[in-house]
Design goal:
By secondary structure, this protein is an alpha/beta fold. The chain contains 9 helices and 7 strands. It has a single domain (about 1-224), classed as Acetylglutamate kinase-like (Carbamate kinase). Helices cover about 45% and strands about 15% of the residues. Helix 3 (about 45-60) runs antiparallel to helix 4, helix 6 packs parallel to helix 8 (about 185-195) and helix 7 packs antiparallel against helix 8. The longest helix is centred in the N-terminal third of the chain and has 23 residues, at about 65-85. It is globular. The protein binds uridine 5'-triphosphate. Uridine 5'-triphosphate (UTP) binds next to helix 1, helix 3, helix 4 and helix 6.
Length: about 220
C-alpha cells in the first residue's frame, strides 16, 4: 500500500471558531481513504501556538523554549485529531522514527524538536517512509507570487520549482511562530529527497481528496 504524508497547518483545523463539521468531515474522509493509502498526518500549532509563543516572547523566553511551547501545542492538536479519528494512534509519536514504527491505519503526530515547523517534520517523515507524495495543506490555495493574506492581487502559481522556492526563501529557520507557506528546512529535505510535493488549501476537502487520490486539484505542484 502506498504511503502519503499530509502536513496540516494548525490554522486550517483550529481557526478562530472551531468548525466541528469541517473536523468531522476531515476525519470521515481520512477514514475512507485509509483503505487505499497508509496516511500519516502531521498537524501544526495554529493560532494557539502563536498566542503562547508571543506571550513567551514578551516575557523574554529564549527561542528554544518558544519552539518547545509551539511543539507542545502541536501535540495537543494531534491528540484531538487522533481521538476524533478513533482508529489511529492513542499516543502521539514524538519523533518521525516513532511515527514510522507505529502500526495503525492512520498515524497522527505533531512537532518533534526545536528549529523548524511541522512542515519539516512532514518532509522528514516522507523521506523516512519513502512516501509516494507529501501534501502541505495550508490556509491558502497553494503557493502565490506574493503573500495572499497581504496582497489581494497575489497570483496563485500552478507549478513552481523547488530551486526557485529555495532561492527566494532560503533553507534556514528564522524564529518561533514564523508563518510561511513552507519552511526553509522542509524545502531542503524536499529538494534532497526529491519528494513529490503538493501545496493546497486544507479547508477545501474536495481538493485535498483529489490530491490524495491523484486527480487534478486546485493548488501548486512543486517541480523537483
Ligand atoms: P507549526 O508547524 O504549527 O508552525 O508549529 P506554523 O507554520 O507557524 O503554523 P501553522 O500551524 O502552519 O499555522 C508552531 C511552532 O512550533 C515550533 C515552531 O516555533 C513553530 O513555529 N515547532 C513546531 C518546532 O520548533 N518544532 C517542530 O517540530 C514543530
Amino acid at each position: 500500500m502506498e504511503s502519503i504524508v499530509i502536513s496540516i497547518g494548525g490554522s486550517v483545523i483550529f481557526s478562530e471558531d472551531i468548525d466541528i463539521s469541517y473536523f468531522k468531515n476531515l476525519a470521515d474522509m481520512l477514514k475512507k481513504l485509509c483503505k487505499k493509502f497508509k496516511i500519516y498526518i502531521v498537524i501544526g500549532g495554529g493560532k494557539t501556538a502563536r498566542t503562547y509563543i508571543n506571550l513567551g516572547r514578551k516575557l523574554g523566553f529564549d527561542e528554544k523554549i518558544l519552539d518547545e511551547i509551539g511543539i507542545s501545542i502541536t501535540r495537543v492538536n494531534a491528540k484531538i485529531l487522533a481521538t476524533t479519528l478513533g482508529i489511529s494512534n492513542c499516543n502521539i509519536p514524538v519523533t518521525t522514527d516513532e511515527a514510522k514504527n507505529t502500526d495503525e491505519l492512520i498515524v497522527v503526530m505533531g512537532g518533534t524538536t526545536p528549529g523548524h515547523s511541522t512542515d519539516m517534520v512532514g518532509a522528514e517523515l516522507a523521506e523516512k517512509i519513502n512516501a509516494c507524495k507529501f501534501i502541505i495543506a495550508t490556509n491558502v490555495d497553494g503557493v502565490f507570487d506574493e503573500d495572499p493574506n497581504k496582497y489581494s492581487d497575489a497570483k496563485q502559481l500552478k507549478e513552481v520549482s523547488i530551486k526557485q522556492l529555495i532561492s527566494e526563501h532560503g533553507i534556514d529557520w528564522s524564529s518561533a511562530g514564523k508563518n510561511v507557506v513552507i519552511d526553509g528546512p522542509a524545502l531542503e529535505i524536499i529538494n534532497r529527497a526529491k519528494i513529490p510535493t503538493f501545496v493546497l488549501n486544507g479547508k477545501r476537502l474536495d481538493q485535498l481528496e483529489k490530491a490524495i487520490t491523484g486527480q487534478d486539484f486546485d493548488g501548486t505542484i512543486i517541480n523537483l
